[in-house]
Amino acid sequence: MHWIPTVDTKLNIWTIAAVFGAYVALYNTLRGWWRGTLGKRALFIRNYRKLAPHVRHEYVKELFGEPAWQYRQSVEQFVSAPEPKGIGIAEQEMTVRTWPLGRMAYLTTWCTGDDEVAMYSLTTRSRIFQPAIRIGTEHVIRLGKSHLSSLPHSEVAGSPLWSVGAQRYSYSEHHYFGGPGGYRTWVVGVSDVGHPATAPVGLGANPEECEDPSQIEDYRALARINSVLIAGGSALRLESILPSAVGPEIGRVILVEPQYGLRARLARLGWKAQCAAARLRDLKSNAE
User: Fold this and answer.
1) Do the beta carbons of residue 165 and residue 156 sit within 8 Å?
2) How many Cβ atoms from other residues are within 10 Å of residue 12's Cβ?
3) Of 110, 135, 129, whose CA–CA distance to 120 is shortest?
4) CB of 124 within 8 A of CB of 144?
5) Burial of 51 (C-beta count, 10 Å sphere; 0-12/13-18/19+)
6) Model confidence over 200-218: pLDDT tens digits?
7) What does the alpha-carbon distance between residue 277 and residue 148 come to, in Å, rounded to a whole number?
C-alpha cells in the first residue's frame, strides 16, 4: 500500500484577505517612498505633460498641490479699437502662482480672473532634471541641456528679448507655428533662477542697447535653455512681461531657506578639508 499525503484543499478566506491586505499596504508604502524620493523626477515630468493652456487652476492643484507663491500682475492684451487703428492695447490683471518641484524645478502658471490657465512655465534648477519638451511639432529640447541654437530663429514672433540689470538677467525667444502648433506660442530662454544660467552680458542691457547683433548668435550657441513658457491662443501681448516672465520671480523664490541634504553636507566637508589642507601648507612653508 502506497503512502499518500493528506492535502487540505479548503480555502481559508481570512488568510487570503490578510495576504492581500499586506500586499496592498506594502505596495502603497513602496509607491509613496518612490514618489517621495527617487521617483520624484518621473512624477513631476508625468504631471507636467498633463498640462495644457486653458485648463482650470483646480486641475493643476490636484497634480502639484498648493502653490508656494501667489500674487497679481497686469499683462497687456490686444483689444478691438475704433477705426482707423482697429487694434488697441488694454491691461488684464492675472494671478501668478509658483510651485517648487522639490529642489529640481519651478512651475509657474498665469491665470485669468476665472482661474483659467492662460500660460505656464517650467524652469529646471538641477542638472538631474532635464525633461524633454516638444516645441511645435518638429522640435524637441531638453531643459538644462539643449542650447538656444538648437532651435531656428522665429521669423513670425519677432526678435529675441533680454534684460541685464544689477541683480537680475533673463533672455527669451518666441516660437509660433500657427495651425500645426495648435496656435500656441512657445517661449524658450534663460532665467536667472534656473540651472545653468548664462547671463547675456555681452549683448548689452537690452535689445535697444545692443551694439553688435552678431553677438546674439555667439550667445545662442553658448547658453542652454533652462526655461520654457507655453501660452495658448489668446490676445495676450507677451512682450509686456518678457523676458523675465520666462521663469519665476527670483525676488520671491530666493527668500526660501534651502534644504541641505547629503550632497550639501559632502560639499561642506570637502570645503573644510580644503581649508585644513591650505592651513597645513601654510604652516609647513612658515616652518621652512
Assistant:
1) no
2) 10
3) 110
4) yes
5) middle
6) 988 888 888 888 888 999 9
7) 41
